[in-house]
Amino acid sequence: MNAIRLQREGSSRYGNAVTSTSYPDTKETSPYLGFTYDFTPDVLGYASYSDIFQNQDQTDINGNYLAPVKGVNHEVGVKTEWLDKRLLTTAAVFSAKQRGLATYAGTNPVTNLYWYVPKDVESKGIELEASGRIGKDSRLSVGLTRLKLTGPDGHDIYEWVPRTTVNFRFDTKLAALPKLRWGVGGRWQSDVHRVGGAKQDAFFLANAFATWKFSNDLSVRLNVNNLFDKKYIGGIQYGAIYGAPRNAALTLEYKL
């Protein structure tokens, strides 16, 4: 159970709210319900329900704050342990209905600022995930999400949100170098676009890391992001923003 009291005054962080806007105090109670059931010692089923209540900073064409988003979330899934509990898999279906979600509507020709309209949006999808150990020193996790977003007319909405994503991570130690742990990870996403705007084809980003542990208190870590220096557009909701090229960071950590 979540209890929320919302108070607001002044302008929004975007700087386009009318300071005299009437925005009364809001009190809301959001319940959460969850159930689990053990089918076997290794198979667990679960179901959950929760209300949605989320404040919004966006404003309409007149500079007035939009009302908070309200809605409901549902999720049903199964978790299974394999290989003497070394591997855990999860399969789940979920849905969410959001009423009054701020949606970009254009630029006010007078103020030259963005304005938004509230829309009812429904999302449905599936999630598949597997994580665990491969052998003594290796770990692997893989996850897939498939999503469907529809607007109040029943058609696709928010085309800039990828409908399919896959994430993975693998890390291990080498027997010859027990102080070294290294790994790779990455994310693949399906193509996205904006009606009348930019488009980004499906792409894959890879990352890598290596950690050398001098002692229990001292270690050094190297992270390399966008390993293959992929050129891609990371955000197309408001234009075309290129993602960061290949970059690296070296971190020295000491625990007191």
Structure description:
The protein is mostly beta strands. The protein folds into 2 domains: 1-118, no CATH class; 159-256. It is 0% helix and 62% strand. It has strands at residues 2-6, 26-30, 32-40, 43-54, 69-82, 87-107, 114-134, 138-150, 164-174, 177-189, 192-193, 199-200, 203-213, 218-225, 233-235, 241-242, 247-254. The mean pLDDT is 89.
Keywords:
256 residues; mainly beta; 11-stranded antiparallel beta sheet; two-stranded antiparallel sheet
Briefly say what this structure is.
With 256 residues, this protein is mainly beta.
What value does the Rg take, in angstroms? 23 Å
Biggest sheet layout: 11 strands, antiparallel
What portion of the residues fall into strands of 2 or more residues? over 45%
Structural class designation = mainly beta
The gross shape turns out to be globular
Tally of extended strands? 17
Task: Quote the distance from N terminus to C terminus.
Answer: 39 Å
Order of helices and strands: EEEEEEEEEEEEEEEEE
Bin the helical content: under 10%
The number of domains is 2
